[in-house]
Amino acid sequence: QVQLAESGGGLVQAGGSLRLSCAASGRTLSNYIMGWFRQAPGKEREFVVAISRGGRNTLYEDSVKGRFTISRDNAKNTIYLQMDRLKTEDTAVYYCAADRRQSWYKSSPGPSVYDYWGQGTQVTVSS
What is the pLDDT of residue 71? Predict the structure, then answer.
């Protein structure tokens, strides 16, 4: 089992940037596809981005393409989400998650695909 812990959330003005981190313990992170999801108040948890085990493949939700960048450092057992040009609609709790599957996605995955989750970190973008 892997334990995930997000950090880096906070309050930022629209147009600003934040960098989220997700540190893993218990298992080697390189064994997992990793993803970021977010959940705004009153809404369902939605997919944001995923990265393959070796970091070669990434998949972004359309609304964050060109603004968010996912990366991973398997040696540090950590993944990152660099968020630039933030918008008020990016306000949500952001969760990292780990997927044990071997094959890469053919389409955006739903939350049920993932096996392990962090506790989440709040991102608030003010206008």
Answer: 97
